[in-house]
Amino acid sequence: MPMADTTVQRRMSVPLTAFVAGAVVALLVGVFGRLHDPTLSGTTTLGYPTVLAMKTVVSTAIAVLVVFQIATALWMYGKLGIRSPSWLGTAHRASGATALVLTIFVTYHCLWSLGLEVVGTLPNGHVVTPRAMVHGLLGCAVVGTIVVKVVAVRSKRAPGWLLPVAGGLLFSLLVLAILTSAVWYVGEKGWPSQAG
Ligand code: HEM
Is residue 66 scored above 60 in pLDDT? Predict the structure, then answer.
């Protein structure tokens, strides 16, 4: 086999492994979301009236952080036409880590207290809308894409395109997951205030 072919195969093995691992994790999270019995024990409202209200507030913070992530990433890749300062990489990593922790926190609350809902009427009479189902599927895809993004950041053998592709995909999926949940919530019920 020519040398160039082996090099290409070696370089493609990291993205392929990352995307397969991400897809498997997304699938497993979805299966867990269908099998697990939803419960409010083991959750917190952080002083908001409901878990949904708390998730709306935390998800808004995530939205601000991911917009900062994409802006600083474009700046570091030289896409804004201005030289990036030396502290930008550290700021990008710190806000990225914070966004990751908050996303895992919100996802845990979604999966644990509700799970992956499918359009129809639940035994308790709650009607699951297409929006709620699409949101849950996007949430599973977010978790799988986090796996791809972490591999892209950590792997020294990954091709240069993997990090911006994984980062851009994660940003897009998170924005869609937030639009179909927190933004919908604020549109329907207004901004949540803390329980008095
Ligand atoms: C495995 C992943 C996830 C699953 C299965 C899931 C599922 C759900 C479900 C079923 C609801 C209730 C929808 C309704 O009936 O109104 C919900 C609400 C919510 N989710 Fe998720 N979610 C996931 C990930 C995420 C992520 C990544 C975010 C944002 C970063 C998020 C933010 C929210 C918010 C703010 C609400 C409250 C507003 C609402 O009721 O839609 N979720 N989630």
Answer: yes
Average pLDDT, the chain: 94
CA distance linking residue 96 with residue 101, whole number of Å:
9
Domain definitions of the chain by residue range: 3-189
Q: Which residues contact 100 (CB under 8 A, 6 or more apart)?
A: 146
| Nearest CA-CA partner of 149 in 66, 31, 78 | 66
The CA 113 to ligand 1 mean position distance, Å, reads 10
Q: What is the DSSP letter of 120?
A: E
Q: What is the pLDDT of residues 169-185, one digit of tens each?
A: 999 999 999 999 999 99
Ligand 1, atom 3, residue with closest C-alpha: 139
Cα dist from 73 to 51, 68, 78, 89, 195, whole Å: 32, 8, 9, 9, 37
What ligand 1 atom has the least distance to the C-alpha of 62? 30
Task: Please tell me the distance from the alpha carbon of residue 139 to that of residue 174, in angstroms, as a whole number.
Answer: 8
Write the burial class of residue 2 (CB in 10 Å: 0-12 exposed, 13-18 middle, 19+ buried).
Answer: exposed
The whole-angstrom separation of Cα 125 and Cα 121 is 6
Q: In the structure encoding, which two tokens stand for residue 118, read together?
A: 């499918």
- From atom 15 of ligand 1, which residue's Cα is the shortest distance away? 132
Residue nearest to ligand 1 atom 7, measured at CA: 136
